Amino acid sequence: MAAAIAGCQHTETGQPVAASGVSSAARTPTPGTKALTIRSVIEEQPVPSSPSTVPSTVPSAPVASDADIAAAKQTRQNVGLTSDPQARQQAFASLDCSLPDPLMGHEDTNLPLVACGSGSKYVLDKAMLTGKDVADAFVGKSSDGHTPVVSLSLTDAATSVWADFTAANVGKQAAFVVGTSVVSAPMIQAPIPGGRVEVSGSFTEADARDIVRRITGR
């Protein structure tokens, strides 16, 4: 996925502890606004032999059973993912990026997440920022005037968090995640103060509008 954020360069080569209840009844996720999370990347595993793991549009949440959701959370949102390589490998093995994700719409932002992106699977830390930290979002164009970007304006509190994070993590990746799909995972090139972030990726203008809609609810 060719992607970037202001102050970052993408170098990608490469979905989250058990929920209570094991009912087999299907559960439909609540349609989400504020669906964006920003997470640090712990590990990336390329999937070179597969087609793009992110469809042309960010997938909608499927109807999933409580049992499927609980099983996915047990493996892919295990707190041990941040420190246990074996747990990470088990989570990677359990994730088929070609199938609908039962966690979509049920993910916990306070837990790590194993997720799909374009050409990679990722282990991500708990969310440092969510859509609630975005004051506004809109579709724009990159500096070349051709590539669609999602432009974010962060709240004052989130601006400070993002500036501190980027200053402390130059040379590391940050993932922009919509639901359980990684839409961009760029490498931080420099601190990013000011609270304005432009996110680009392998998405169309329609995809960018969909991402903005999920963040803002409009």
Description:
The chain is α+β, with helices and mostly antiparallel strands and 218 residues long. The protein has a single domain, classed as 2-Layer Sandwich (Gyrase A, domain 2). It is 21% helix and 29% strand. The chain has four helices and 14 strands. The strands form four sheets. Strands 4, 6, 7, 8, 11 and 12 form a six-stranded antiparallel β-sheet that branches. A hairpin with a 6-residue loop joins strand 9 and strand 10. About 16% of the residues have low confidence. InterPro entries: SecDF_P1_head (IPR054384). This is SecDF P1 head subdomain domain-containing protein.
CATH fold-level name: Gyrase A, domain 2
Biggest β-sheet strands, sense, barrel: 6 strands, antiparallel
Low-confidence spans: 7-33, 50-57
Task: Compute the average pLDDT.
Answer: 81
Percentage of residues in helical conformation? 10-25%
Shape: globular
Report the end-to-end length measured between terminal Cα atoms.
Answer: 27 Å
Helix/strand structural class: alpha+beta
Give the name of the CATH architecture.
Answer: 2-Layer Sandwich
